[in-house]
């Protein structure tokens, strides 16, 4: 394993939404998870569990998720809650506009947009989908933060193996289907989904470089000279 510097990885990490079909070796995924589970967690409770899916079960999951979407099945209310407003909503819209522009999908191209949503549901056709979940009897305030730390660490660790990732909450639309296929026990709470694979750099949406507010906009300083 050869890895870039930590700062290089943090700067160059980006969401990858187009992948090569090449399979990802299991030993690379094991190493990535070993690195990710070094993440801190409150009281070292380590409330995270992972289910890694590829091949036939992933193909079945993707196919049936699309069928559920086409049948208008109700989706997990935790996916894309309608709580954004103001600058938060503006930023979400901006990223959506940029992606559709890169893909050449016009505003009124409803079928193009729908196909993009189906692709997101299918882990962007990545060869690997990872579900990060927890014991549903634990409080969300305890688990969400820790599972978030693990998720980012997983994305950074994947870069050491030349792999790209996209945290893809749209892949969590149908938790019962996910539980059926992966055997994740009932009563678990699915918190994150991550697509993993080798980036297809020719895929237009992978050219997106999302922006960040500057440091001054997000930081206040106290007690500095
Ligand atoms: C909790 C979470 C959920 C996300 N879900 C999706 C998703 O469903 N579909 C998608 O295209 N990107 C998703 N993303 C990726 C974000 O859109 C992306 O991180 C953001 O636009 C910043 O871009 P970057 O990751 O390329 O830096 C998600 C990211 C996070 C942290």
Describe the structure.
With 225 residues, the protein is of the alpha+beta class. The chain has one domain: NADH Oxidase. The protein is built from eight helices and four strands. It has a four-stranded antiparallel sheet with strand order 1-2-4-3. Helix 2 packs across helix 6 and helix 3 runs antiparallel to helix 7. The longest helix has 20 residues. The radius of gyration is 18 Å and the shape is globular. The mean pLDDT is 97. The structure holds flavin mononucleotide. Flavin mononucleotide binds next to strand 3.
Structure at a glance:
The chain has helices at residues 6-12, 26-36, 55-70, 86-103, 110-121, 140-159, 175-182, 215-218, and strands at 49-54, 128-135, 164-167, 188-197. By secondary structure, it is an alpha+beta fold. It has a single domain (6-205), classed as NADH Oxidase, CATH 3.40.109.
Oligomer: single chain
Number of domain units: 1
Let me know the largest β-sheet.
4 strands, antiparallel
Radius of gyration: 18 Å
- The succession of helices and strands, N to C, reads HHEHHHEHEHEH
Q: Considering the protein shown, what is the CATH homologous superfamily?
A: NADH Oxidase
Helix content, binned percent: 40-55%
Tell me how many strands there are: 4
**Strand order of the biggest β-sheet:** 1-2-4-3
What would the principal axes of the Cα set say about the shape? globular
According to CATH, the fold-level topology is NADH Oxidase
User: How confident is the prediction overall: mean pLDDT?
Assistant: 97
Spans where pLDDT lies below 50 across 5 or more residues? none
